[in-house]
Design a protein that fits this description.
Length: about 750
C-alpha cells in the first residue's frame, strides 16, 4: 500500500517535470576567475562567493548570503588580456573595499533585487530573494567596484512540494507500519526534488550523502556513542540481576498501579536537566517496576515521553536554556524600544507556554484519577488482565502471606517480571543463582544521573570562561554539551559496574563484555531509525518546508491573533520536522519582531514568544521522526507505531485544550495566563472523568455516555403511539383515577 502510493506520486511528479533538465547536482558555489578579454579596472569577482539554498521554492522568500573579499583587485593601466590569456603591460594592485557597495541580482535579464552592501559585514550579508516559476536558471550578481559579473546556477520547485517528504513519511509509517522504510522513502523523495527530479541521483544520494552525513555530524555521533554506552550498561545491569534487585526496593513505594505511575512521574521531575537524559535514565531504571505493577509499556512510554521534553524546555537550569536565550536575543534586537534581557524575556514567557506546562500535568492527573480512554484504555486493560493472570496462582496459594486480593492490584514479584518483559528474556536473562542485589543497578544509574548533571556544569563553566560570560549556574547549564556529559557518566558507570561485578564474582571479564555487547545490539534497530530521522530532518531543512509554512502567515492578521497563529504553526512545523530547536529558529525571527512592530504590549510580546516555545515542543512528544520519540521507544522499549497509536490521542487532547483555553482566550484578554493554565487543568480533569474508564472496571460506562443516554431517553426520544395509554384503554379496575401518581407515571 505505502510503496504503491510512493510510486504513483513519483510518476505524477516526473510527468509534470518532463520539460525540466535533469542534472545530478546543484552548484553550491560557482566562482568565475579573472579571464576578462576587455579592458577593465575590476577583476571578475575574485574572492566573491554566495551561499544559496539547495533549492528555491517558487514565490517564497529565502535568504541569500553574499561573502565579499577583504580587498578588491584593480589594474593600474587598463591594458587588455592577450589571446594567450596573459595580461600584457598591466599591473595589479589590491585596494580596500568601499564603505558601501551597490549591488544587483538579475535572472534572465530581469532585475530581481538591488540594494547596498556594507564593508563592515563582508563576512556575510543576507539578502532576501524570491524566485517565481520553477526549473533551472542562472542568477547574475553585480557589485559596484567589486564584482562585474558573478553567476550562480539555481533550481526552483513549486512551494507546495516541500511538505511532501515529511508528509509521505508519516503516511507510509501509519499504513505500512515499517518506520525505517518510510523514513528512507521520505529521504528519497526529498532528494528527488533537490536533484532536479533525477530518480537515480536521488537514490544514490539518499545513502551516500544524507545517511552518511547524519552519522558524520559531530553532535549526532556524540548521541550515538552515548546511546551505545548506556545500552551496554543497561545490558550489564539486566544480566547481573540488578534491575530485579532495584525493583524490589522501588516496589515498597510502587505498591499499586497508581503509586507506580506516581513514582515514574516523580522521577521525571528529578531528572529535569535534559530531555534525552530524562527519557533514557527514567525509562531504563523503572521499566521493570512498571511491568511488575501491571503498567503497560505504552502507558510507561507515554509518561516519560510526555514529561521529558516539556520539563527540560521549561526549567531555567537545563540544556535548553542556551538555545532559547540565543533565539530570543536574535529576535529582540530587531525590535525598537525593547531593552529586556533575553534571559528575563525567556523566563517571562514560561506562563504562556500552555502546551508543555499542561503536558507535564497530564500524566499526574491520569495517575491520580486512574482512568484512561481511547487506544490506551484497551492496552491497559489487556496489561491489567495479563497481570492478574500471572498473580492469581501466587495469591491463591499464598493467602497467609499475601492476604486478600487488593482492589488496586498488588505488584508482581520481580522473579515473575521476565514473563512479561520481553527485553529481560533470552540473552539478558540473569544467570541462575545470581544474587539480585539492588545496588548493582542503583549505583550505576545514580552515577549516570549525578555525573551527567555535574559534567554539564563543568563543561558549561569551561565554555562560559572561554567566551567571557558571567560565571553563573544558568550560563553553565545553558552553554554546556549535555550529550558529552552523558557519555562521560555512562562510561564511568560502566567501569564502576565492571568493578562491582568482578568483586562480587557475578561475572568474569568475558561474561561482562558479552553482556555489554548484547546490550548494545538491543539498540541497533532504534539507532538505525534515529539516523534515518536525522537524515530526513536534513532533507526537510534543505527543501525548506518550514519556510513555506512560515510564509503562509497572512499580513492582515490582528495582532491578538498572531500568538494563536504562532502556536498552531509551531505545532505543525515541529510535527513535520521533529525539531523543536529548528521550529524556534524559524518562527522566532518572523513572529516576535512582527508583534513588536504592531504593538507596544509586553504581555503580548511575551505570549508570542511563549506560543513559539510551547508549540515547538509538540513535535518532540508526538512526531514520529523526533529524537525524543525514537529514544522513548528505545527506553521503554516499545514499537514506534504502537507508542504513537496510544500517545497521539492524549497529546492532541492536551494541545486542543491549551490552544482554545490558553492561547486564544489569553490573547484576546479574556483572562490572564495563570487563569488559563488553571482552566486547562480543570478541563483535562473533567474530560478524563467524562470519557475515561478504569482499566480494572471494564463494565463501567463513561459518565459522558451515561448523560447522553439519559438525555436521549428523557428528552429526545418520544414514546411510540401504541405505547401511549389513556384512561379509556385501561381495564375498569385499573383506570387512571384508581392509580397513584407514581404508578401512573411508571405505566404511561
Amino acid at each position: 500500500m505505502g510503496v504503491s502510493i510512493l510510486l504513483v506520486l513519483l510518476v505524477v511528479l516526473s510527468s509534470t517535470s518532463s520539460a525540466i533538465s535533469s542534472e545530478s547536482s546543484l552548484m553550491d558555489y560557482f566562482l568565475l576567475a579573472d579571464n576578462s578579454s576587455s579592458s577593465t579596472n575590476v577583476t571578475r569577482c575574485s574572492g566573491v562567493s554566495v551561499d544559496l539554498p539547495k533549492v528555491f521554492l517558487s514565490g517564497v522568500a529565502v535568504p541569500v548570503t553574499i561573502h565579499l573579499p577583504d580587498y578588491v583587485s584593480r589594474t593600474l593601466n587598463g591594458s587588455e588580456t592577450g589571446d594567450n590569456g596573459n595580461e600584457d603591460n598591466s599591473t595589479v594592485d589590491l585596494m580596500p573595499l568601499p564603505e558601501s557597495m551597490y549591488y544587483e541580482i538579475h535572472r534572465s535579464g530581469k532585475l530581481l533585487v538591488n540594494g547596498t552592501l556594507s564593508r563592515s559585514q563582508r563576512d556575510g550579508q543576507a539578502v532576501s530573494l524570491t524566485l517565481s516559476g520553477h526549473g533551472h536558471s542562472q542568477l547574475l550578481f553585480y557589485i559596484q567596484d567589486v564584482c562585474e559579473e558573478h553567476v550562480e546556477e539555481v533550481f526552483s520547485i513549486p512551494a507546495w512540494l516541500s511538505i511532501f517528504p515529511p508528509l509521505v513519511t508519516i503516511i507510509l509509517a501509519i499504513f505500512s507500519k515499517q518506520v525505517l522504510v518510510s523514513l528512507c522513502a521520505g529521504i528519497f523523495l526529498g532528494c528527488f526534488f533537490l536533484f532536479r527530479y533525477n530518480p537515480l541521483t536521488a537514490f544514490l544520494h539518499t545513502y551516500d550523502m544524507y545517511l552518511v552525513n547524519a552519522v558524520a555530524d559531530q553532535g549526532h555521533a556524540e548521541i550515538l556513542v552515548g546511546t551505545f554506552l548506556l545500552g551496554g550498561l543497561i545490558g550489564v545491569v539486566q544480566k547481573s540481576g540488578g534491575a530485579y534487585g532495584l525493583a524490589k526496593i522501588l516496589r515498597r513505594l510502587a505498591k499499586t498501579r497508581r503509586s507506580s505511575q506516581l513514582v515514574a512521574v516523580g522521577m521525571c521531575f528529578l531528572v529535569f536537566f535534559d530531555d534525552y537524559s530524562n527519557i533514557l535514565i527514567v525509562g531504563n531504571t523503572l521499566r521493570s517496576v512498571m511491568t511488575s505493577s501491571g503498567i503497560s509499556k505504552n502507558k510507561f512510554a507515554s509518561i516519560i515521553h510526555s514529561m521529558g521534553p516539556p520539563i527540560a524546555s521549561i526549567v531555567p537550569i537545563s540544556s535548553w536554556i542556551g538555545v532559547e536565550i540565543g533565539t530570543a536575543k536574535g529576535a529582540l534586537k530587531h525590535i525598537d524600544g525593547i531593552n529586556e534581557e533575553p534571559f528575563i524575556y525567556v523566563i517571562q514567557t514560561i506562563p504562556y507556554r500552555f502546551f508543555p506546562v499542561i503536558m507535564l500535568f497530564f500524566p499526574l492527573i491520569s495517575a491520580l484519577i486512574g482512568w484512561d480512554f481511547g487506544p490506551m484504555l484497551k492496552v491497559e486493560r489487556e496489561s491489567s488482565h495479563k497481570h492478574r493472570s500471572l498473580t492469581s496462582t501466587v495469591q491463591s496459594n499464598s493467602v497467609a502471606n499475601y492476604g486478600s486480593v487488593a482492589e488496586s492490584e498488588p505488584c508482581l514479584e520481580p522473579e515473575l517480571m521476565s514473563k512479561e518483559e520481553d527485553v529481560q528474556a533470552g540473552a539478558l536473562e540473569p544467570k541462575k543463582g545470581v544474587p539480585q542485589r539492588w545496588f548493582n543497578s542503583a549505583v550505576p544509574f545514580l552515577i549516570v544521573m549525578v555525573v551527567t548533571f555535574v559534567g554539564m556544569i563543568l563543561n558549561g563553566r569551561q565554555v562560559a570562561k572561554e567566551q567571557g560570560l558571567d560565571m553563573t549556574l544558568v550560563n553553565f547549564v545553558g552553554n554546556c554539551d549535555a550529550v558529552a556529559a552523558l557519555i562521560w557518566s555512562s562510561a564511568l558507570a560502566t567501569w564502576v559496574a565492571l568493578i562491582l561485578m568482578l568483586l562480587q564474582k557475578i561475572f568474569t571479564f568475558p561474561e561482562f563484555m558479552e553482556a555489554w555487547v548484547i546490550g548494545v545490539k538491543e539498540l541497533l534497530e532504534p539507532v538505525l531509525i534515529l539516523i534515518s530521522a536525522w537524515a530526513l530532518g536534513s532533507i526537510v531543512a534543505d527543501v525548506q518546508a518550514s519556510s513555506w509554512v512560515a510564509s503562509s502567515i497572512p499580513a492582515s492578521f490582528k495582532v491578538e491573533a498572531i500568538p494563536v497563529l504562532a502556536s498552531i504553526l509551531a505545532c505543525v512545523m515541529s510535527y513535520a520536522t521533529g525539531s523543536a530547536f529548528g521550529t524556534m529558529s524559524i518562527l522566532f525571527p518572523l513572529i516576535v519582531p512582527l508583534v513588536g512592530k504592531k504593538t507596544s504590549s509586553k504581555a503580548l510580546l511575551h505570549q508570542a514568544g511563549g506560543a513559539i516555545f510551547g508549540g515547538a515542543i509538540f513535535g518532540n512528544v508526538v512526531a514520529p521522526i523526533a529524537d525524543d520519540t525514537i529514544l522513548t521507544t528505545l527506553s521503554a522499549p516499545i514499537a514506534l507505531t504502537d507508542h504513537l497509536k496510544t500517545q497521539s490521542p492524549y497529546v492532541f487532547l492536551v494541545v486542543a485544550n491549551t490552544v482554545i483555553l490558553g492561547d486564544v482566550m489569553v490573547a484576546f484578554d479574556c483572562y490572564n495566563a495563570y487563569v488559563g493554565l488553571l482552566l486547562c487543568i480543570l478541563s483535562l480533569v473533567a474530560t478524563i472523568i467524562l470519557i475515561g474508564q478504569s482499566p480494572q472496571q471494564p463494565g463501567r460506562t463513561p459518565l459522558f455516555f451515561r448523560f447522553y443516554y439519559f438525555l436521549k431517553s428523557k428528552i429526545w426520544k418520544k414514546p411510540p403511539a401504541e405505547q401511549q395509554f389513556t384512561g379509556a384503554l385501561l381495564p375498569s379496575d385499573l383506570t387512571e383515577n384508581s392509580l397513584t401518581g407514581d404508578q401512573t407515571s411508571r405505566l404511561i
